[in-house]
Design brief:
Helix content is 45%, strand content 15%. The protein is of the alpha/beta class.
């Protein structure tokens, strides 16, 4: 400001005439104000505050009043007395100083804004030139995108060893251990001219997914099947499938991305055109859609899947679609008019029981059951995995792993953990895995052996082994009974542990009637206590035969064999009725070390007469069971 005043003062000093000091000051201040607001605005301001008559007055104080009214924006400032002139000048100068300071700041800001705009403009021009150049040369990458691509390529060059499961996964159907019947059933239903939808039942880690994949590979090699050489195998986990009930998104079936809500691709959204997005059912067209844990899927989503299975096509709808819009691409028009093809074979896998699966999906699918793996089969899996992984095993390691688990996948993982322990024990070179290595990793994982050889050659009174199933895993149940003469004649009590289930209690009541018929014993003359050791939960009546024999043994004092397990429901007439889960129960009996297994005669077709090294006998009545358990013979 001082420099501007100095310049204006020098200009004034060159003017002709000899004015007083106040006149010169007022002249300079007029120049400053005019430089700030401009001549035109000064005239407008002067008219607004009634200062026009003072602008060209001869009297310096009058011209000062005109300037003060404009600068201070006060139309009522009077002509000052001589002693008031200095104060009015200070007020005007202070106000002009503020205006000059604001003007300087605004100029600096405006310059910065202009500089930024110019920089952005130049950057935009460079990008535009680069884009035009890329269009001419086919180059679409920017320096940023090239740097990101280089980072991804650097990550791709880093590889760990493949996972254990990938290394030991069977590559041929003959490599699948312990599921020969299930594999044959799969081939009969898939590798044919008329493949069927399937549901695979069985415990985890027994090869359901691998078998399904390999069966499709086999079917593609056969000329009479409908599967082409490139038929896809699309795998998804049913427990993770999610969808929006408003149809905003559905990765399984497919959905429509509307231009407003879901945001179709830019080129479509700008035109207001919805974009259909086919789902996994279309990706599986011509092949297999494998849904693991299909029993965990939402019932509503399953119903939508059933509709696709019937139509073999997915239909799309959107209120934004206008078939008369000429801008709609042909592929979008076709998807809305004809739908997306979805002709595939569904294979679902589950660890649930059949009765827990949606009846509608079961009615459309054939069913294949995978068996639990027996200890010898686990041993084979471990030995094959050790060979593929080039791992040496000490004698007995594979058998020890089979004691800890009945799952093939878990057995292989245990082998890998033990091998890691062996490497740490040594110097990092190849060494043999010992039972000590296995024991250490099992203890760290809090694992206990699942296999218990509880069967013995001795005879016991009031003690027998029944069989139960939990999920797809069978087990031997210890049933024991003890009897005392009633303290009061005809007022005996029958006690059964309350944790075993209501149907097991019914079995006890049925057993009382059968015992009276067979042995002419009135249970009201005895206090009889029946117990399932460990509080085992018996969901069905299949322990009836075992409970009857245990009670009869306690009442008569006859000892029973402890190397035979029995299953079967008992009717009031003493007939042994059929039960379910025979194969699973056989595995449970084998784990317990049983030599024989007694099953109802009506279950004869469910299992071979010789299975897992055990003799399987068919019995029709409780009398036959009693004869065998007490050491008699039965053909």
């Amino acid at each position: 400001m001082k420099e501007l005043w100095q310049r204006l003062w020098e200009q004034k000093s060159r003017k002709p005439g000899d004015e007083d000091a106040l006149g010169r000051q007022v002249y300079v201040l007029y120049g400053v104000y005019t430089g700030i607001v401009g001549a035109e605005r000064m005239i407008l301001e002067a008219g607004r505050v009634n200062a026009l008559s003072y602008l060209h007055a001869e009297d310096s104080r009058s011209r000062l009043v005109g300037l003060a009214r404009m600068v201070l924006e006060d139309a009522d400032i009077p002509i000052p007395a001589s002693w008031e002139v200095a104060g009015l000048l200070d007020r005007v100068e202070n106000r002009l100083s503020d205006l000059l300071a604001r003007q300087a700041v605004e100029e600096r800001l405006e310059q910065k804004i202009n500089d930024t705009l110019e920089e952005k403009h130049q950057e935009y021009v460079r990008d535009l030139r680069l884009e035009l150049l890329n269009e001419e040369t086919g180059e679409t990458e920017t320096p940023h995108s090239k740097r990101k691509l280089a980072e991804l390529e650097a990550l791709e060059r880093v590889h760990l060893t493949p996972g254990v499961a990938a290394q030991v996964r069977p590559q041929r159907l003959v490599d699948i251990v312990g599921q020969e019947q299930a594999v044959d059933a799969l081939l009969a239903k898939i590798a044919t001219k008329y493949p069927q939808h399937l549901i695979l039942y069985g415990p985890p880690g027994v090869g359901k997914t691998t078998a399904a994949r390999l069966v499709l590979d086999e079917a593609k090699r056969l000329s009479y099947t409908p599967f082409e050489a490139d038929a896809p195998f699309v795998e998804v986990d049913g427990s993770t499938l999610r969808y929006d009930e408003r149809e905003i998104t559905n990765p399984l079936i497919g959905s429509v991305h509307d231009p407003i809500y879901q945001g179709a691709q830019q080129s479509l959204a700008d035109k207001g055109i919805p974009e259909p997005k086919p789902g996994l059912v279309t990706k599986a067209h011509g092949g297999v859609l494998f849904i693991d844990e299909i029993g965990e899927m939402s019932p509503l989503l399953l119903n939508k899947l059933l509709k696709v299975l019937e139509d073999k096509r997915v239909h799309f709808e959107s209120s934004y679609y206008n078939e008369e819009d000429a801008r709609v691409m042909d592929y979008i028009r076709k998807l809305f008019q004809d739908g997306a093809p979805a002709d595939f074979i569904l294979i679902g896998a589950t660890t649930r029981a059949p009765e827990e699966i949606n009846p509608a999906i079961r009615s459309r699918c054939a069913e294949v059951f995978f068996s639990p793996l027996a200890p010898p089969e686990i041993v084979r899996i471990v030995e094959q995995a050790a060979e593929k992984l080039d791992v040496a095993l000490e004698t007995g390691v594979a058998d020890a792993i089979a004691e800890y688990t009945g799952e093939g996948r878990k057995a292989v993982n245990l082998l890998a953990d033990a091998y890691g322990a062996a490497l740490r024990r040594g110097d990092g070179t190849a060494v043999a895995v010992t039972r000590g290595d296995l024991r250490r990793v099992a203890q760290a994982a809090r694992l206990v052996p699942e296999r218990r050889d509880i069967a013995t050659d001795e005879y016991r009174v009031g003690h027998v082994y029944g069989l139960g199933v939990y999920g797809y895993l069978g087990s031997a149940l210890e049933v024991e009974a003890i009897a005392f003469p009633a303290k009061e004649k005809g007022k005996g009590r029958l006690v059964f542990n309350g944790t075993a289930g209501s149907m097991a209690k019914d079995s006890v009541q049925n057993a009382a009637a059968v015992i009276r018929s067979l042995a002419d014993l009135d249970l009201y003359e005895y206090d009889v206590h029946v117990n399932v050791v460990g509080g085992g939960q018996i969901d069905g009546p299949s322990a009836g035969a075992a409970i009857t024999c245990a009670m009869l043994s306690a009442l008569t004092g006859r000892a029973l064999r402890q190397d035979i397990a029995v299953t079967g429901e008992v009717s009031l007439t003493g007939t042994v009725k059929p039960v379910g889960g025979i194969m699973e129960k056989a595995h449970g009996a084998k784990k317990a070390g049983m030599k024989q297994m007694l099953i109802p005669a009506e279950n004869r077709d469910d299992i071979p007469a010789k299975y897992l090294g055990m003799e399987v006998k068919r019995i029709a009545t409780v009398a036959e069971v009693w004869s065998i358990l007490t050491g008699g013979t039965h053909d």
